[in-house]
Amino acid sequence: MDLDLSAVEPFRAEVRGWLRRNVPAAPLPSLETEEGFAAHRAWEGTLAAARLSVVSWPEAYGGRGASPLEWLVFEEEYYAAGAPGRVSQNGINLLAPTLFAHGTPEQLERVLPPMAAGEVIWAQAWSEPGAGSDLAALRATATRVDGGWRLNGQKTWSSRAAFADRAFGLFRSDPAAERHRGLTYLMFPLDADGVTVRPIGRLDGKPAFAELFLDDVFVPDRDVIGEPGQGWAVAMSTAGNERGLTLRSPGRFLAATDRLVALWREHGADPLLRDRVADVWIRARAYRLKGFETISRTDDIGAEASVNKVFWSELDVALHETALDILGADGELEGDWLEGYVFSLAGPIYAGTNEIQRNVIAERVLGLPREGRGGRQVGPGAKRGSG
Amino acid sequence: MDLDLSAVEPFRAEVRGWLRRNVPAAPLPSLETEEGFAAHRAWEGTLAAARLSVVSWPEAYGGRGASPLEWLVFEEEYYAAGAPGRVSQNGINLLAPTLFAHGTPEQLERVLPPMAAGEVIWAQAWSEPGAGSDLAALRATATRVDGGWRLNGQKTWSSRAAFADRAFGLFRSDPAAERHRGLTYLMFPLDADGVTVRPIGRLDGKPAFAELFLDDVFVPDRDVIGEPGQGWAVAMSTAGNERGLTLRSPGRFLAATDRLVALWREHGADPLLRDRVADVWIRARAYRLKGFETISRTDDIGAEASVNKVFWSELDVALHETALDILGADGELEGDWLEGYVFSLAGPIYAGTNEIQRNVIAERVLGLPREGRGGRQVGPGAKRGSG
Amino acid sequence: MKFVLDAEQRLFGETLHKLLTEAGTPALIRRWAAGDPDRTLWSALAEAGVFALAVPERHDGAGPLPVELVVAMHELGRHAVPGPIVETLAAAVLIDTAGDEELSAEWLPRIAAGEAVVSLAPGPRRALDADAADLILLAGDEELWSAAPDGAVLRSLDPARRLFPVAARERLATGPAVPRAAAAAYDLGVLACSAQLLGLGRALLDTTVEYARTRRQFGRPIGEFQAVKHHLADALTGLEFARPLAYGAALSFGSPDFPRDVSAAKVAASDAAYAAARIALQVHGAIGYTDEYDPSLWIRKVRALRSAWGTPAEHRGRVLDACSH
Amino acid sequence: MKFVLDAEQRLFGETLHKLLTEAGTPALIRRWAAGDPDRTLWSALAEAGVFALAVPERHDGAGPLPVELVVAMHELGRHAVPGPIVETLAAAVLIDTAGDEELSAEWLPRIAAGEAVVSLAPGPRRALDADAADLILLAGDEELWSAAPDGAVLRSLDPARRLFPVAARERLATGPAVPRAAAAAYDLGVLACSAQLLGLGRALLDTTVEYARTRRQFGRPIGEFQAVKHHLADALTGLEFARPLAYGAALSFGSPDFPRDVSAAKVAASDAAYAAARIALQVHGAIGYTDEYDPSLWIRKVRALRSAWGTPAEHRGRVLDACSH
To answer: Which pTM value belongs to this model?
Structure first.
């Protein structure tokens, strides 16, 4: 057992140096606005030019074949430098792992390089109005046609879809099958004929997600991932990634915690708030060390990923609630902390509500019995799968 | 709407004056010890001699016919004076209300005056090893015999039974009936033939409750309360009392909160703990005002009693956890605050766990649907009904 | 002692609830947020007697009636009514208590009649809806000033809360009565804001219970799940115990305990309403997180009001300071 | 970088777990609490190498091995082993670091061999099991003293924690090395106590999960109820994230971050273990509240250790003081 990071220090130094030279001096506009989206897309191109947009991918697709530890270090440096949010994260964190596991060589070569370069920004299309937490209840269809599929139906809570280029999601390809069966995993362009994108404002009014109305949208066979009808199994590899470290790397919280401690000191280091600030610091550090533990393990962490999801999402809320309380009467005013707070509130809801995660922990990690009935015991309605 | 207490000020002044003259200067030994039990029994006699042991009862049974408001005022003064804990409370708060609702005149006259005088101390005998939260699952039997009943079986978590004189509880009188049916409410002496009392130490080792083993214990018909077989309905009137105000009057928390604020100041008024102390003060005051609201209402509070139970039990734990944190490294040492802490930990468990209370609140106050199955949805295993 | 609302008080609340239900506040809130401070509802509230509650009879009011004020603000909170209502009520107390007869005669009858929208800056030098107000008050140490907007609007998480930096313009009164009046106005504003928070929290609880009854996932209403039930039971418990603190504080109006009691009420109301808002968001899932879903307006207002009229920490400090003997 | 235990470290933990399972600690704890500080288990632990972990090789030890020390204390916590074990380990560090060769030669080999039970007073002048110790250490500003019991036993919520007031007896060493040694001993004690708390919490979680699987109410195992599931999931989450802090702190032994890191570990371990204890009590119901049910010994020890070796507030202060630049 050791925490010897000396082998990755040269990589850390390179990343840090590059970021110091390249991170924009002034923050980019919010990526949930049209202007900000364009600026963040351009930033992805800048990152890609330095082969820093997808460090853990193979070189062939724009990465560096970085180890998980190098990726964690990259993330620490990235957020410590105050670099822009990652507008490509849905593609990089959700779609790409699925493609690595189930994609054809042709798909990998066609899809990944433009994703790495920020040329194609991806949105997820999981949830439907009647299928939030209960993803298996989805009803949007993919109908077999010559050379491909026709998509019909409605998707919702599609993060970034207001401005993104393409989307991926699950569709019911066998209308007779129920629940997890008969689903197919497909990719489709958001500017295709038959696609209508209706932006939805989140809590602070910014169009952070959208509804997608699909009316006979044609998708060629080459845009099916994995076998038709096997979409549920294909998607589950993505879900594991979401709940593990990739969705929220420790670096994000370490940097935010440093800012929180600084904010607390700037506002007089109020002893009334000291213990909450200390707890955030301790929890962020615990999350960092847990990350090192996770990448040191050789076994599959499986359902333990749910423990991570509950932890980081509650840490993020606590961190931002503490910041707003430090700001006092100014806490309600527009600004970075308020935007971070609003963003944090989605954490316990999406990618599987924390109620569902706690069921998973109890049943699959602790081995408690399922309810003595057909269905799984789960929590409140919510979307899943947005980034 | 008013909070005009002037009409009860003379009563308050009388109680306060009497307590100032009569409350023992040194605290009595813990009532969970044999010596302390005897001292507390004697104190009940002193109270009774001043007609202050059961102020809300009719004069005929030793009370003063005090109004609910007077009772609240009595409790405020009683705890503010630091008067001894009430060793008779199981009888006064649980059995007596049941007798007033369902007892015969003969029972009232026979049972209540010695209870008021502290001559007979009552223990409850609700729970069984297989019937804690799920009280309807109980199995101890009452078998019809000439002139009465024979009790057999085992009861447990019988508060105060280590030193008490008599007990009351539910027994299955119709072996063919299931769950809430076929139960009978009975009183029996703890020194009767066939009764074995095994004291059980609580968390701090004090024998605060006991197991009762019943082997052909004879109970005459006159000690059945209500109709045989109707025990469940008879007992429910007691349950309502438990969850409402009588089990934990606001006066108890007001006095404890004053001591907490004083403790906090004596220890330097640490700002790190200020908000927790303030919250306890605010919650104790809220509980007082809620009490005034409850007695002002003319309708039955019904399931809303569960809201009170959850509130006071969590307040009591928070109050004592705060006190122990003020004491710091001394918090683990024997003393009044530690004893209060141990006592408070039972609050969320007994008289129906807080998980069950939350189900009751959700289903019967808020109108949320029950689980779509036969059984009620409830919480973890626990005893109920001790005081 | 009878610590429940009487029939008349209950009727007053029901009347306001009906009026506001018919007015359809969500559309009004969105228009207000967009910069259209329509006064139709303001006039209707005045007609129902809301503003008169803080104005004495000799200036055409009916006040002070703090219990009725809590009743009214609870209903206004329940409907998330936009605008500087708490500010106008507090301003009435400020003007009345400052003791300048001319000022009182000029403004109090207009406030009671709903003809004057008044704002003020209770904490930082920021006033709500300053661009829409007929008068903005700023209380200095011994001086009362009128003020004017002094900068662009500051956007709040609650889009209907349009805050403006303000600067003093004209001196209206001086003397030791001014700080006393400012303190009295502050305490009344805190009480009104507490009641508003309770109404907001109650509305969120009711909406969420209804949603949990009807929204189905995994083949059944999500309200059947124990986790949802317990969340909602906790929200109810918080609100049920915060309410008596608000009414108790109203009844101590005029006594030395009033500042302590309104602070206790504000802490409990903020915590209970905020807990209800977080639970509403969690039970609704993504829909509750959207701008276009009406209850999100309530959720945002709760978070904003939590630190308006004094932060919870400030009020906890006031509570303990007051019981220091 | 490989931040998981290696095979040898895991085997060490498993060996201790087996040894302690066979020893049957609940009976030992009750005897210890009754005033019978039997040393059989102490010797067995020494033979397994526990005390050598804090003693350097030149004094017949194998240390310092802070990671293995966390492994060992986790298992000792899991079995709620009574006695001044943390104190003896910390005392070894104190004696070694104080630099008095004679003192070291006298005591360290005996500590490693399990022949010396040593206590000390990390906070107030109170030492655990002072009546059973061969040596009691008391560190003053620049002076190290031996001490002796100075009053009757103070009863703790954990009946196996027998605390005694102590008074200085004989000066053992002087000089600036003493406070440094005392600080090093304190930090190591904090780390050991953190690991002990994690083991206690883990044992309570395991016991409670097993209870929830088998205890039936309302016709089914209570572990089917969502409220029970969520309580236990939260307990697991707390413990899962406290563990890496303890091992991370062990790895920073000798670095300037060590005091900060052990404090962070203690805060997280205290909170996680205390949460596990509260949940264990709530899920068990009345049975968990009884003296005679073995897990109640674990519950009581957790509450006592929460404020031993520094309160959570003291450690939070140390954490923030350390990241003040």
So the answer is: 0.94
